[in-house]
Each structure stands twice: as C-alpha cells, then as structure tokens.
Amino acid sequence: MTTPRVAVSVMAHPRRAAAAADIARACGTLPARVVLDPEPHGPPSTVRTARLAWLPWQRDATHHLVLQDDVLLRADFDRHVTAAVAARPAAALSLFTEWGSFTSHALRIAAFGGHPWARQPDTYLGTQALVMPAGHARAFAERLAAVDLAVPDDHAVHAYTHEAGLEHLVSNPNLVQHEVGTSMVGNVAMGARRATVTLPDDVPLPADWWQGEALTELTRIPSVFWRDAGPSSYERRPTPGAPWTVAPVRPTFGHRQDEVEARVRALLRADDAGTGGTAVGAALTGVAVTMTAQLAVARSLRRRPTSAAAEACAADAARTIAPGGLRTLTTAGPHPVDWPRVSDAFARLARRVETELLPGLDLEHLAADHTAGVAAARAR
To answer: Which of 321, 314, 312, 300 is nearest to 369 (CA)?
Structure first.
C-alpha cells in the first residue's frame, strides 16, 4: 500500500486567522497553509475562499485536504488522516458530519454495525474537513471559478463529485470537532452542529480500522429531521443517481411496531433522562424509537466486530442522536435540559435495546427493506 502525501489548506476569515494558524500547526507532519478570505468585507460566502483553498499547493502531494477555521483536530490527526486516505485513495472523504444531518443517521447505522465509512446521502458534502485526490481538488477549484458566490461550497462540491463520478464517504469516527461559535455565513439558526461520532484519544483504533468495509448500500434510513425534531424516513429512489428525499416515518418492525415502541418507552422511563419537563421530553420517545430502528437495521446487515474502538464509536453515536436531532426545540422551562445526562441515558438505552429487545425480534426482512433500491438499480 502506497503511503499518500496529504497537503492541507485551512480556509479562514481574517478575524479567525489566529485560530486558523493554530489548526495548521495541529496538522503535525502534514504540510499546511492558511488561506484567508480575499474579500472579508464582501457578502458572506464560502465559495470565495474555497476557490483559493482547493488549489493544490504542494507539488508532490497526492491528496488535498481543506479544513475550516472553526474545527478542533483529534490527537494524532496527521496519522489518522494518512491511514484513512491510504484506505480510500480514490474517494472524497468527509472527516466530519454534524450530528443532526441525514448523513449523521447513516453514520450511526455504520457505527452500530462497526463500519469505518458510510456513504454520504445528503444533498451536500460536509466541508469542515474534506480531502480529495489532488487532481480532483484542482478540477474542483477550477469549477468554483464559475460558481455563484451565493452557492454554499458544500453544495458545490456535492455537485462536482456527482458529475465526476467520485465516491464520497464520511468517516466513523469523525476526526474533527466543530466548535460552537458565531457563524460567519448565517448558520446560527441551525443550532449547535457537533460531531456525530467522536472517539476518545485514549481509545486506539485497530491498525486495519480504515480498511474495513464501507456502508454504501442503504436506500432507506430511519432518521430524525432536525428542522422539526420529528421522526422521518430518508429515502433514495431506485434510479441510479436519484436524489434522496424526506418521507414520512415508516414502521420498521411491522406488526410488532406497537410492542417495540411500548418497550422502548418503558426502557426510557426507567432511566430518568433529566429533560426538565420541556418539549424535549415529549420528543425523546420518537428519537429513541428511531435509534432502535437504526440499531435493528445495523444488526440485520452485519454484527459489530469486537474492539474497544467499535464499542466506543457505537456508544457515542447513540449519545449524539438526541441533542443533534432536537437541537432546534425550545428548551425553556423551570429547569434546563441536562444534555450530558440525556446523552448518557441514550447510550445506556442502546445497550439495553441490543441485549434485551433486538434478540427477540425477526430482523431478516430489514436488510432487504433498507437496501432494496440498490438491488433494483443494479438490475436495470
């Protein structure tokens, strides 16, 4: 396996130049430079800086990584990036996906099943930390020259990868964390956008982790739509290249759906999540049922390999589903929502669902139900 050579651009607003310089230094052995917005007083635009940031600047680099100026890198970031790119050298790799996106729910199923990668189903690619082969990075930078400044860069890169036939995957675990701060491009209304899966620095990834199988066959994903904090089904039509759409929630467990939901409610009640009597408390059951469906789909596709890293990633995927999916709900009340307590309760709930609930259910149909579109597309 050839070791890739990854060069980094940190795209930044001048007001965040110092933070961007810190990020560049944290890249360790990866050569990194800071690229500043050339017109910082102009209308907010990510494309304006991305045009420069995506231009490869290291002649011998095989891959080009662009980081945004509001991320935190995990320990040994350079080593993890190099290993990840070596495992998937021909793909566009997002090293972060925010915890309320539809992609986050695909990544949770991947984490529950022990996959290091998931295909990104959203109509944009996460650009907080995105790496591409150098040739594609240059072609994308050239494409951006004709892209309107009002178009978000994450939408522009999604269009590019689709037209170029470039596979795009998101990593489990995420390798950067998104800082909570003031958005330079007006994303405050979206609430906090944190990582879907993080791995503690003291939990080592197996040497062959990134070589593992990617979860790419999903065509139906049990989800929580962050805009309304409600359960939904994110689905792709069987036609190759068809976009994903938000559909009403589907019963995952057939004639046993009511029974499963009742048992999930009972498990949730047994573990006081500390929601303070706010609207969050009323929404948690729907989130818990959605997570149960994700765990069931993962179990139907593949059993999770045994390793401390796999277990830790699965636990963190469960921890982030409630704060990610419910981040836009009003949390005013007599007591604030204790999100760490909620998150820990969901991690415990996931373990109980796996050990007490799923073993008694027939899950054989779920793999076909949630991947049927792939088979149909291949048969055309």
So the answer is: 300
* Integer Cα distance of 37 and 52 in angstroms: 9
Residue in this structure with the two tokens 């011998």, named with its chain if needed: 60
| Residue 241 near residue 378 (C-beta atoms within 8 A) | no
Q: What percent of the chain is helix, strand and coil (3-state, nearest 5)?
A: 45, 15, 40
Tens-digit pLDDT profile for residues 261-295: 999 999 988 887 656 556 677 789 999 999 999 99
Query: Quick one: which H or E segment has residue 6?
Result: strand 6-12
Contacts (Cβ under 8 Å, ≥6 apart) of 148: 47
pLDDT single digits (tens) 95-123: 999 999 999 999 999 999 999 999 999 88
CA distances from 185 to 19, 26, 46, 152, 177 (A): 17, 25, 8, 9, 18
d(CA 72, CA 75): 10
Segment 321-344 mean pLDDT: 82
